[in-house]
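RETRY 2/3 - previous attempt timed out on the joint model. Re-submitting the same 682-residue input unchanged.
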Amino acid sequence: MTNITLLEAVTQALAYELAHDENVLVFGEDVGLNGGVFRATDGLQKRFGANRVMDTPLAESMIAGLAIGMAAQGLKPVAEFQFMGFSYPALDNILNHAARLRNRTRGRLQCPAVFRMPFGGGIHAPEHHSESTEALYAHIPGLQVVIPSSPARAYGLLLAAIRSPDPVIFLEPKRIYRLVKQDVPDNGVALPLEKAFVLREGSDLTLISWGASMHETQQAAEVLAEEGISAEIIDIASIKPLDTETILCSLNKTGRCVIVHEAAKSGGVGAEIAAQIGEKALFSLLAPIQRVTGYDSTMPYFKLEHSYIPSVARIVHAAKSTVGFS
Amino acid sequence: MTIATFTIDYHQYLKPDGTLSQPLPKDLDHNALLKLYRLMHLLRVFDGRAINLQRVGKLGTYPGNIGQEAIGAAIGHAMQADDVLVPYYRDCAAQYQRGAPFHKILQYWGGDERGSDFNNAEDFPICVPIAAQSVIASGVAAAIKYRQQKRAVVTTIGEGGTSEGDFYEAMNVAGAWNLPVVFVVNNNQWAISVPRSAQTQTQTIAQKAIATGFSGEQVDGNDIIALHERIRMALDKARNGGGPTLIEAITYRLCDHTTADDANRYRSKEELDMAWQVEPLVRLRAYFTAQTVWDDSKEEALLLECRKEIDKEVDIYLNIKPAPVTDIVDYMYAKWPESLKDQRETLLQFGDSHHD
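RETRY 2/3 succeeded.
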């Protein structure tokens, strides 16, 4: 057994796929000798060679284009963007080409590429290094958007992402990169994409989140438990496509729900989840759905970032008012 | 102290009057040239039909190739079957030679995605957003290099597109990684209404390659012989580990940008009339005539044959049955997500309701 962090689980998954599939290539800025700015690709170039783990020139749109061209040739490129806030020059290629290639050729070409991006705040990083703009990608038909929140899910979901025949945006919650360790056997077993994970069963309300906010969400559930409130916790994990069945199943049981995400509130993925519940489980609801999210502001610089990121107190407050609604 | 200098060569075999400025390259005999001549005519007939189809409401917006036929014709002929084409949207002659019949090209511009499902396993469909194809082409070339295959990629772009960052990023990585890719620029002088002179201050587009570490050259883009020879040489170089090349093909867009454009708004009749004097078909015909391998009756027979072939293609296009409405979703993913199945059901129920 290996006791590893979420970050090390990413490395372990990349190494497993590199070792077992010669079509897998890993590339991006500084991913080679340096092992990436967060060390997610640490040691991979030494182990697998500079023709499989490559430092690219510094150009995000080009990195996306490389991945698309390689994927259309049947390779399985795993491209890294150093930070989500730097991925936008690549949007044209990801949205107009990666996401559309299968459809616009009626399946003649496909794009089995993975675009990895560390995302979210909380690490005292400079401007543009702390964004949570997952809803941008989740809105785009043809993409899958996957966000792990534990070492085991990082390993299993990244394997699944690399093996997927369609493009995956793989968002890594950097605030919890090194937060906890977990035994993650390096057995090459992938987790299903498009599935949410019920992390804790409960009966009074459902807490829904993903990424780094799972950490505060789980802590909030502990606080609530001490006060006799039983919270069910769902890690959405794949925000596109969304596992509505697991969400509705839980809502039919609890009738109450708080959605937690770090991204800005308006037009966030929480809104989509709330809409799905409204469409399909309205009469199961015993209280209005609440969202605990970042604000409709620019991600503040790090002096104030902890005032922006949803706190345990905010989640607990929302949960209590939801449970208290009658 | 000078630490870097460069030169840009200009290549031409066939002068506008149809005489040779240097002997024919040895791999291009009269038969091959006649084939290319026929192909350019075929494309010009096709363009005329496509524009007419648009005018009568049977085709969507269409970007013509008129005046620029030699570029696509040369690319398609110079490439080997296992090379890969990553085109922009004025390369019908190249696509046609590589497995995209004209009815498929019409189908694409007629608003049907199946038009890009043509008989070539690896070539990309045309790229509408400007210059993204350039970086994708470098990706295809990187895959070829990784697999140590003896193949190459051709990607095309207009001269306006060379102002895009993607064009530079693509060339930069192609140079840095010595990738087997040939960048062909169709410099037709106009990016919709913006002339070449307003697009960039650089003396030649070809020299944009110099900054990324490989050679660029200008070729007379109305000279099918020069184009074919230079593209063939660049492909040979790429396949043999010599890395990328930029070819600036200098031509003129004798048509509007697309059927939605009216070039009379921004360019003079005198300029257009002058360009018609140097276009690619006239000079090759003059050459053939001087070689006594061509005459009016042959020309007439050829045109008739081209019209017949295009008539057939148009007929196929006009009789293609609409795709099932579920095609809208069925190719988005390898498998349509279970969680979205209600959307597919709605499509089945209401997808035809606008046609009543």
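The two ends of chain A are 48 Å apart (CA to CA). Closing ticket.
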